[in-house]
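Session log. Operator J.P. requested a structure for one protein chain; no other inputs attached. Running the standard single-chain path with token output.
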Amino acid sequence: MLGDTNVGTSVNTYDRLSELPLRIDGYALEARERVASPEFTRVTTTFQLGGGGEEGFGEDVTYGVDEQRAQQERGPDLPLAGDWTIDSFSKAVGALDLFPGIAPGMPAFRRYRRWAIESAALDLALRQSGRSLADVLELEPRPVNFVVSLRIGSPPSLEPIERRLAAYPGIRFKLDATPDWDEALIERLAQTGAVDSIDFKGAYKGTIVDVETDPVLYRRVAEALPDAWLEDPDLTVPEAYAALEPHRDRITWDAPIHSVDDIKALPFPPRTVNIKPSRVGAISDVMEAYDYCAAEGMGMYGGGQSELGVGRGQIQVLASLFHADGPNDIAPSGYDWAEFPEGLPPSPLDPALEPTGFRRRP
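Structure written below.
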């Protein structure tokens, strides 16, 4: 349901983390893989940093299979060992070529990999210090509201939604709208009362998830679902802008956001915005984004990247600390599977932070 998100975070958050001591003796890589559909196999890589008898984990969510395979075949060849602080380590990682010998398919992949390494380092540094992220930031973890992100097929069908509602009656959804949604389908979606957010995928031009800009669809969705957030419309088309102009207080952004400068460059200040740590990259920049939104009174929510391992829990940890009440697209793994399991935890999700480190308990 449409509502303001929590923005009660302190300023200069990164200062609390930057001088944490960090010892890295070496690292290993773990490949993860899951067949998401006949057309898509998700591959990720877990960074396992070790030092001082502790381990820190982070997950590289780069979507390019070739880029992931090349990294896994090279093995742990980056110069990460040494004595650092979080800040000195971050600066060193920022100067490295994280894709040696292969140009990433998208520039954003460099940020994805940097986040994997830095989040593993933060996990390790916190464990070496015997502290949790909540403890260091002096923030209280809160139960996390989440939505389940789905595409409902082509031709579209309510069957994936109805099956999940039958198994989990209180669940809420974020749905990817497509031009083949007709008025009857949109009305049936409205009747479920379970749609929190619609993603128009209008900011992914030139990618495999790019969706045609359809002003008629924009208008129909906005009018039929008056309480839903409207994410990533393509407002460069005048007719699309006009269709959503009466609903601009519900427009929010995800794909364009890599930094505070990107938030400032939006067509107008939104009420809330999606902060994906992997899309931002460096820990310092992620914390700057949180601080900026808090200072501006702008709501926040989190989004996932089809994580297969520790990365999912880490974004759930951040949500519990910075934007627990938002329409967080970070449902526990399984909700989005074609054959989803029984017994998945409901929303709001228990924060369940590990006593030390940057992880959530399984």
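Operator note: The chain has two domains: 17-130, 137-322.
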